[in-house]
Amino acid sequence: LFQRRVPLHLDDRQQPRRSCNDNKAVYLYQKDLQVLEEAIASSAVLLSDTEPWVGPLAAILDPFFNILSFAMLCRVVISWYPTTNLNALPFNFVTWPTEPLLRVIRGVVPPAFGVDITPIVWLGVFTFFHEILLGQQGLLTMKIKYGI
Predict the structure, then answer these.
(1) Whole-angstrom Cα distance, residue 103 to residue 99?
(2) The pLDDT value given to residue 146
(3) From CA 148, how far away is CA 143, in angstroms rounded?
(4) CA distance 134 to 128
(5) Taking every pair of C-alpha atoms in the chain, what is the biggest distance, in angstroms?
């Protein structure tokens, strides 16, 4: 079960230290401990000091983009049912916040095959900005992690 680790560069002067773990001998070399400490230190994500506005902005934009993306996705699903009364509950919770945004680009983006595709356009816009700003390699994420 236990494998003996032999360091690559071991001085003759270094002697293995013996410790007992459940009556099984485990040999720990000083060099192994240094290599292990270096590996742990290099693999940890170090948060950099950054401007104080970056964290709160990311904390506000993340739910904002997620909620609006979900609302636009709901508008896409609602558009599949043209007889739906958009002013009735629960549809008005989705309709009222999204309608001003949709009205802005309805004149620019024509319906495709008789279907209003403006919610899909906004869904793409919100997803794009969320990824650019807050994604795994987003601008605010990189600013928070590495101080770039």
Answers:
(1) 6
(2) 81
(3) 5
(4) 10
(5) 85
